[in-house]
Amino acid sequence: MAGQVKHKQIFSAIRPDWRLAKLLLNLRTRNTDALLGAVAKVLADEGIVLESSTSLLEPLLAKSGVLTRRAPSETEKANIEYGRAVARHIAQYDIGQTVVVAEAACVAIEAMEGTDAAIERAGQIMASLDAAASTLSRALTVVKIAKPNQDMRFDVPVIGLKTIETMRLAGATCLALDAGKCLLLDGQAIISAADDAGVSIIAT
User: Fold this and answer.
1) Strand pairing partners for 170?
2) Segment holding 79, helix H or strand E
3) pTM, whole model, 2 decimals?
4) Helix, strand, coil percentages, rounded to 5, for the chain
5) Cβ contact 141:147 at 8 Å
């Protein structure tokens, strides 16, 4: 399995076949892991075995260390530390994998809307404030993590060129990832785009 899962579609006007309808109605919770896990079980019952979605994409998994020319600043490091703590908590409940932080304050948490929309929302919140009156930096740090027991068969964290452009427009200057568990979908082009935008990327 590969590609984005638009979780909010469970509330859309799609008309499921009997098998999907039964699957949805029998789920106690309808988070991403529960939905995809149930689909994986249905496939397994038919003799279809899901392989790791990254098995042929390992060169695109984020390597450990600073990936861009610029390393995170001390302020960004503090944001990452706080953001990781928050993200680890929400990931336990499979709510989302991304938090956006400024000055060790959580500005936005990803839910059904997806990573880019969460970053956009954080940018809009900061843009709505009176910058002249602020004594704190409004630069955003984006922290994207894998789930505690990330199933590498599906819903692996992904970053693409659009994410870097969204960060630039939102005023985000740093991106922190889980090494070995996040796909840089556009490969080296992401690093080049981040360098051009002055965004620091680090994976740990």
Assistant:
1) none
2) helix 74-91
3) 0.82
4) 40, 15, 45
5) no
Q: Where are the domains of the chain?
A: 7-45, 58-203
Task: For the chain, list residues with pLDDT below 70.
Answer: 1-13, 131-134
Beta strand residue intervals within 90-145, DSSP E = 98-102, 105-109, 140-144
How many helical (H) and strand (E) elements, i.e. helices and strands, does the chain have? Answer: 6, 8
State the Cα–Cα distance between residues 138 and 38, nearest whole angstrom.
Answer: 41
> Is residue 157 within 8 Å of residue 126, measured between CB atoms?
no
* Protein fold of 58-203: Cytidine Deaminase; domain 2 (3.40.140)
Q: Beta-carbon neighbour count of residue 156 at 10 Å?
A: 21
Q: Give the model's pLDDT for residue 61.
A: 93
Q: Which of 181, 41, 28 is nearest to 97 (CA)?
A: 181
Considering only CA atoms, which of 187, 200, 153, 125 is closest in space to residue 51?
153
pLDDT at 23: 77
The answer to whether 182 touches 204, Cβ cutoff 8 Å, is no
Give yes or no for a contact between 182 and 190, defined as CB atoms under 8 angstroms apart.
Answer: no
